[in-house]
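Structure in, sequence out. Go:
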């Protein structure tokens, strides 16, 4: 870390927070009736709590940590997901999380920003891989140091980030309404056309082949592997790409070509089965145990099949068919996916439905672009503010220009 501004100090994380001591039985009162937060209940990278249920509602039985308002809960498993949130209530958190209680030296919201920052996330991902298990332990937490300004500046930094979060939330609410409208529109249009409900496999052209010859692949020096984050509720997004050496390339992986239709086979229950058409971003490949590549036959357009797979009825089927004992990771087999029931009309109706839905899809893409732009601004400002490279007045001037 570069030289800090005057008045800032470099402190160890464990010196400005209190770590949990002891666990309680969530089956006993009053704990059974209190909210219980687990990693699955927190949105990745945003700090938002997605779901609040009591320990009894979740059927919790193993030991949990007690949390109180102002604690910051951080998921110690799979740190690459960046799951941290600020507690606003008395309750419990999973033993897979650290409830970090701020001391008088640090503001809760500033601490949350640090835990979601690029700097801390890179550190957590680096140390969590030492044992081969994606998990960060207490000893490793002691190795991390953060830049700490005065409490007053911490509060102002948190307020700036909160302002950007509020704007992101507004866009997300608009996106959710557009998604629901799009799904309802597709469902309505499909219900009013002549189409037989058949299994997805009836509309596939068989197992897809690699889009490149062995000779072409031989000339490449490395590959890009698509992570699950590239499939979103709105289709394919060129993100979470990982470079791998050619020597690490698994022969069973599929090399993609532009236009391939992808569907995720493993993820959390609400995200498994997301579909999107791949757009060329290099020489990427996928691992079949994480994603499946579909090649529609002549009876079905690829862009129409993507729309159907993103519809509400398809999403409900996929989530019901996914198997797994943990909500943090469920899977759906390729053979099960091909049995998915879909309504596919003739090509002329497919084109008509695509034309009708194109305006909504365009609006979704526009909102996504606005969101990405704002998210990039927030991430950049966060890193600059947390290190003192940009001071509060400069950041406030940026917000005024939005």
């Amino acid at each position: 870390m570069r030289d800090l501004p005057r008045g800032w100090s470099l402190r160890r994380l464990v010196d400005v927070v209190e770590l949990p001591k002891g666990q309680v039985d969530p089956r006993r009162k009053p704990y059974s009736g209190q909210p219980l937060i687990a990693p699955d209940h927190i949105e990745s990278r945003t700090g938002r709590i997605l779901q609040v249920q009591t320990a009894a509602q979740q059927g919790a039985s193993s030991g949990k940590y007690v949390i109180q308002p102002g604690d910051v809960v951080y998921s110690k498993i799979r740190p690459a997901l960046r799951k941290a949130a600020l507690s606003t209530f008395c309750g419990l958190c999973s033993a897979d999380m650290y409830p970090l209680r701020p001391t008088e030296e640090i503001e809760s919201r500033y601490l949350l920003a640090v835990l979601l920052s690029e700097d801390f996330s890179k550190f957590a991902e680096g140390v969590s891989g030492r044992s081969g298990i994606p998990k960060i332990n207490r000893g490793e937490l002691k190795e991390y140091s953060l830049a700490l300004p005065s409490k007053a500046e911490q509060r102002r930094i948190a307020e700036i980030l909160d302002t950007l979060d509020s704007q992101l939330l507004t866009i997300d609410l608009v996106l959710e309404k557009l998604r629901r409208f799009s799904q309802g529109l597709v469902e309505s249009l499909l219900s009013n056309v002549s189409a037989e409900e058949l299994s997805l496999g009836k509309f596939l052209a068989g197992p897809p082949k690699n889009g490149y010859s062995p000779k072409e692949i031989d000339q490449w020096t490395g590959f890009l592997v698509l992570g699950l984050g590239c499939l979103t509720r709105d289709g394919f997004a060129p993100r979470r790409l990982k470079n791998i050496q050619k020597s690490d390339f698994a022969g069973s992986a599929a090399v993609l070509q532009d236009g391939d239709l992808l569907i995720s086979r493993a993820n959390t229950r609400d995200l498994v089965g997301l579909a999107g058409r791949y757009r060329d971003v290099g020489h990427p490949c996928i691992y079949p145990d994480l994603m499946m590549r579909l090649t529609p036959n002549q009876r079905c357009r690829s862009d129409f099949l993507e729309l159907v797979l993103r519809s509400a009825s398809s999403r409900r089927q996929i989530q019901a068919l996914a198997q797994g004992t943990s909500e943090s990771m469920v899977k759906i087999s390729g053979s099960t996916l091909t049995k998915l029931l879909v309504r596919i009309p003739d090509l002329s109706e497919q084109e008509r439905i695509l034309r009708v839905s194109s305006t909504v899809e365009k609006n979704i893409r526009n909102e996504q672009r606005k969101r990405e732009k704002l998210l990039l601004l927030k991430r950049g400002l966060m890193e600059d503010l947390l290190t003192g490279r940009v001071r509060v007045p400069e950041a406030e001037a940026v917000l005024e220009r939005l």
